Amino acid sequence: MSTTPQANWNKLDDKVAVTGQISTEDIAKIATAGYKSIICNRPDGEGGENQPASSELKNSAQAAGLQFAYLPVEIGKVTAEKCAEFHQLLEKLPGPVLAFCGSGKRAKALYEQSEATQVAGKQEERVTDACNWEEGSPKTYSVPPAQAGEKQTLAACSWDNAFDIVVVGGGSAGIGVTASLLRRQPSLRIAILEPSTKHYYQPAWTLVGGGAYDIAETVRDTANVIPPGAEWIQAEVNGFTPDNNLVHLADGRSIGYRQLIVCPGIRLAWEKIEGIEETLGKNGVTSNYRFDLAPYTWSLTEQLKNGKALFTQPPMPIKCAGAPQKAMYLSCDHWLRQGVLDNIDVEFNTATPALFGVADFVPPLMEYVKRYHAKLVLSSNLIKVNGRDRIATFEVKDSSGQVSRVDKPFDMLHVTPPQAAPDFLRNSPLADASGFCEVNPQTLQHARYPNIFSLGDASSSPNAKTAAAARKQIVIVAENLLAAKTGHELKTIYDGYGACPLTVERGKVVMAEFGYGGKLLPSFPLNPTVPRRFYWQLKVKFFPWLYWNAMLKGREWLTRSTGAN
């Protein structure tokens, strides 16, 4: 199947054109179009199984009478040495030449930076059009006089490490907003900074822990979800210098940007529970908040016939505030169906003063707490686990505010970990007092840096931290960022929408949809507090499909915020 129709070949001059990944089927078309040589700038294996090996392409090219050269360049590493090698290949190979990489942008960067070096020489500092913050600028220009901070920014802004937009985080928010932006403006040069090679659909992990979903269906290779046209830089972020428009990476590089989107998610702070990390995944201790542990939750649930089962919830904020109790409901439903629930002492310990943050949903949830004969302990925070002896220690606050320590034995312990903003964000100038990226809760623009936006779990916006919230926020950020880019008013307003499908039993869900202040924002003309099988079907079948096929691909179905103008 051809991946690079001729319409996508970007002709830079009479001798050179660039394009994205090619296939062996493209070789004949390239030869017919008059090209004499091909340069491969994409490292083998970067695109996963769908990327043909350079040796395979070379054989096809030579069979078609074309020259082929392999000059691999990693994303973010268009160095002066690589540019010099690229120039040497252009001097040696018969033209015209077609160079390619994942999207064509590295190949273009190699050409333009090598040409700038040849024209200007070592005496004149030049940068590419990626560093000119004005639209329609020439491809190279001399660096004008600047203040020290501006010089730092310009020094970082070569084609190897400067982008129109840098997105920090390749989770649901980062991939989704990148896809949406590229659907609006395909010419944008966007980099996604994400260290993980795997991408997860985390909302299904509760179902996995309840025996209702296959864990293998919740993970895909990151390379396969990166939107076409975006650059994936597989690296960890360790800080920001927003005054100079720079993101700093753990490997020492700095990435320049015109606009920045901060969405690295929220960190699981296991270290806040003494002893937990050495006993996770054994001794009856589990958590649906980790990919490798959700199947263990189901294993424990199946095996437990009598004893004590503890479920915990830490202080807010956490991802999906309903997930801790959903784990309890699904386990209890299984025990009820198996006829062993009466032999199991179930207890839900939450550090919060109420079962759920939106009062309208507390009565129907309490009915299930009663149905499962579960003990609800409020203001009870897990602080220590002794896995060997199966003892969990809680700090419990009474009505007068006095705190006491209580040790509780267990046969099964489902732990929801404390959660916090990533350290590189919490310790940066972008953070508010709580460590999250400080934004206007309506526009999601940073409160102090107008070229920065944030969405998802890392944002300070006081909404529920759920994938459903990110799905709505994607539209807000995409439209407002592009408005800010052109100096227009930010008219798209976020109403705080979030959704938590509360799985109260296998086959029924309470669809909690709400916005700022706990205002109910139901998507259907039904009483949202009533458990329904229809919502179960949405949770198990439709929402995962929507996630992989719409949200991550920039298709914004049913995402318009009710606060939009």
Automatic annotation (TrEMBL):
InterPro entries: BLH_phosphatase-like (IPR005939), FAD/NAD-bd_sf (IPR036188), FAD/NAD-binding_dom (IPR023753), Prot-tyrosine_phosphatase-like (IPR029021), Sulphide_quinone_reductase (IPR015904). It comes from the Bacteria. Residues 163-286 form the FAD/NAD(P)-binding domain. Keywords: FAD, Flavoprotein, Oxidoreductase, Quinone, Transit peptide. GO terms for molecular function: FAD binding; hydrolase activity; quinone binding; sulfide:quinone oxidoreductase activity. Gene3D superfamilies: FAD/NAD(P)-binding domain, Protein tyrosine phosphatase superfamily. Residues 12-116 form the Beta-lactamase hydrolase-like protein phosphatase-like domain. Its cofactor is FAD. Pfam families: BLH_phosphatase (PF04273), Pyr_redox_2 (PF07992). GO terms for biological process: sulfide oxidation, using sulfide:quinone oxidoreductase. This is Sulfide:quinone oxidoreductase. It comes from Nitrosomonas halophila. The lineage of its organism: Bacteria, Pseudomonadati, Pseudomonadota, Betaproteobacteria, Nitrosomonadales.
